[in-house]
Amino acid sequence: MPGGEVPVQPLHADRVETAADAQEDRLAGLAVTAAGLELRDGSGTLLATAPGAFHEREWVFVAAGYDPGSGGATLYRGIRGRTIAETRAAVGAGADAAPGRIREVYAGATPDAQALFNGKISHRVLLNRPPRADELEELRAGDLPDPGATVVAWDFSRDQNSLRVPDRGPYRVAGRCVGMPTRAMTGPHWVKGSAWTSGWPRTSSPRSTSTRTTWRTPAGRPPSASRFPPT
Prior knowledge:
This protein is mainly β.
């Protein structure tokens, strides 16, 4: 599932951090809400939750994994400088484990431009399997521990003067910024401070917008992204 690092503004209502759009307009994804993290499948069924409010102007690593074989879902959350916490849940029989192929992947909003995320996104990685425990710190740092399992890894530090977001993964599926987001912003590992604008020199982040990549033809669709929800 998607993973990345985000700081948030005060959340007055549920807001989606990232979502995937599959066939028949079904959504699955990881949501940052006022109550914590939520993971939903393609039918909208809630797979897992990790309660706990997010604090304003604080970078947080978030990730999720779903294994349709075992029926287990896991949410990961870690404040910068602290151990990543893990929340596991057994998925019920009503979960939509394999609704089809991925058509589009969104970050920061739903496909209809609703539930806009009010904050910064440092980096986004989508794997074709759940992340392993020994990979979490590498993912939090923005590295790719297993390029062979990487479906897409958007790099917001490159092409900062354009709406294009390069992909560091093996398929080179570039994303597209929508809604003129603020680019060239600092990320979570910025070496000169730790305030709201602090971050990593190589990262920048969209704010209150969606960034999406589209796989509409067989030639443009990574083979590892053929199942949904992405794992």
